[in-house]
Design brief:
Blueprint lengths: L26 H48 L2 E4 L2 E4 L1 H6 L4 E7 L4 E4 L11 H8 L4 E6 L5 E10 L7 E10 L1 H36 L1 H12 L17 H49 L5 H32 L8 E4 H18 L3 E6 L3 E4 L1 H17 L6 E9 L2 E8 L6 H4 L15 H4 L4 H11 L3 E6 L5 E8 L6
Parallel strand pairs: 9-11
Antiparallel strand pairs: 1-2, 3-4, 3-7, 5-6, 6-7, 8-10, 11-12, 12-14, 13-14
Length: 487
């Protein structure tokens, strides 16, 4: 099928989503309206059920009253020549309160105390039902359009011949039942809107109280600034949705406050660390340019600047690695390798340095397959071994090793140096933190070694921990997820 260039294919029209009729209202009004709507439905169902239950109970009581009246009237009915008859006193008693009709076995009307002949329908189906031996209830309207309740009962012959010889109808105006029911229905119709309005007002107030924590959270979030991150809600709420929201908001503020504090400290420390080599470089340049120098003096100045540049370059590289770690992009190039071979490689590089320092450097490396960035693993080992050698005196020992344990890879570096005081342990992985603040930066480094080790370990999905006792050395344990075997 070819499409004409003059008639581009039709694109399907976007689906239009009609918002809820309450969608643009504030949450408080929406809660109130939904509460009022639900209450209206509940009130309608309850009122309807109550009305119909009362109606059925009153109608059943009314029918029972009719049956009792019919039983009393049947006592005054006599049978003469096969047709039922009634005493004049019984006929007269049915004057204004109710009416009665008496039929013979052929359905011919014998007695009628109704207002006037034909004023109330005879209801022949009910009469035939009574002549068949069954009691039947029916309704009829009189000339005033008022409802009459009629019961039709069979008239039996004497005990020696108990056959149906006729039918008796008794009718009673149901107005004494319908009027109270109508009044009750009117009361429900009038009271319902008033109760609903009062309940809606109460619901509006309750919704306001329920949403008060949200208003507090909104106000705090609107007024908070970079210098106000220490503010907290501190709302003592139950463990419900709003309580969890308030506690989550406080926890979020705490995390943001901690992140801002770390960021400020990191920026200040980084500026301080970079200022030192830059100041030294500037001093050496100014000193070299102060007067003419010999070639050897210029070379000496350039060597000093080169050392400061190397230090500055290493610091910038470390800061870049930490920034990549914060962005989750540190270990981006991953491949499978044997960590034991990496440990052997680093061990061979540091063995001469350890021997020169009079330190016994040993390794315990078992084959352990790892999926990750091998260059970063080398950097982690270099940082850990540098720290261990720097804090271990001559005659001490430093041990590095790795081994697979339960599907994970365990890497460690342990030394027998002076150890670390307990108050420093929880801060050792913080950036720019140094145990001995009085040591020079040239001797003690920038305090980023363990921070970059932690970033590398976590970038590979692992963990790092340091244990130490004063005077008994320190041990760093790194746990990394091992490579899963191919199935």
């Amino acid at each position: 099928m070819t499409l004409s260039p003059h008639h581009p294919p039709s694109t399907p029209s976007p689906i239009t989503r009609h918002p809820s009729p309450f969608g643009r209202l504030p949450v408080r009004w929406r809660l109130t309206l939904w509460y009022a709507l639900l209450l209206a439905v509940v009130m309608a169902l309850f009122s309807g059920a109550l009305y119909f239950a009362l109606q059925q109970q009153l109608y059943a009581s009314f029918d029972e009253q009719l049956l009792n009246q019919a039983a009393l009237t049947l006592a005054s009915v006599q049978v003469a020549d096969g047709d039922p008859t009634m005493e004049p006193s019984a006929v007269g008693a049915a004057g204004g309160e109710y009416f009665l009709r008496l039929f013979n076995h052929e359905g011919r009307l014998l007695v009628d105390t109704g207002p006037e002949p034909g004023g109330i329908p005879l209801g022949m189906p009910a009469v035939r039902s009574a002549l068949g031996g069954r009691t039947d209830f029916s309704n009829a309207l009189d000339e005033d359009r008022e409802t009459l309740r009629i019961v039709s009962v069979p008239v039996l012959g004497p005990d020696d011949n108990p056959e149906v010889v006729g039918a008796l109808q008794i009718g009673l105006d149901r107005n004494e039942i319908d009027e109270p029911l109508a009044g009750f229905l009117t009361s429900l119709a009038l009271a319902g809107p008033i109760v609903l309005l009062l309940a809606a007002c109460a619901g509006y107030l309750l919704a306001g109280r329920a949403l008060a924590p949200v208003v507090t959270i909104t106000g705090l979030a609107a007024n908070i600034g970079a210098g106000d991150l220490h503010a907290r809600l501190n709302l003592h709420l139950p463990d419900d949705e709003l309580g969890r929201l308030a506690r989550t908001f406080d926890a979020m503020l705490a995390r943001i406050d901690d992140a801002f504090t770390r960021q400020r400290r990191f920026t200040g420390d980084a500026a301080h660390e970079m200022r030192t080599p830059l100041s030294l470089m500037r001093g050496q340049v100014d000193l070299a340019l102060a007067r003419p120098r010999t070639n050897d003096e210029y070379r000496e100045a350039l060597r000093g600047i080169d050392g400061d540049l190397a230090r500055l370059t290493g610091l910038v590289s470390t800061l870049l690695a930490l920034a990549r770690a914060d962005a989750g992009q540190l270990a981006s190039e991953r491949m499978s390798f044997d960590l034991a071979s990496t440990v052997d490689l680093v061990f061979e590089q540091y063995a001469p340095l350890a021997t020169e320092a009079g330190i016994d450097l040993s390794k315990e490396a078992a084959p352990a397959t790892l999926i990750g960035d091998e260059d970063l693993m080398v950097q982690l080992l270099v940082n850990l071994i540098d720290n261990a050698l720097a804090h271990t005196p001559a005659g001490g020992t430093v041990t590095i090793g790795c081994q697979p344990v339960d599907g994970q890879v365990h890497l460690w570096v342990a030394d027998s140096g002076e150890g670390i005081a307990p108050e420093h342990l929880e801060h050792l992985f913080d950036r720019f933190y140094r145990v001995d603040a009085g040591r020079s930066r040239n001797q003690g480094g920038a305090g980023l070694g363990l921070a970059i080790c932690k970033a590398i370990a976590e970038g590979h999905g692992g963990t790092i921990a340091l244990t130490s006792e004063r005077g008994r050395g320190a041990r760093v344990d790194v746990t990394l997820p091992g490579a899963r075997p191919n199935r």
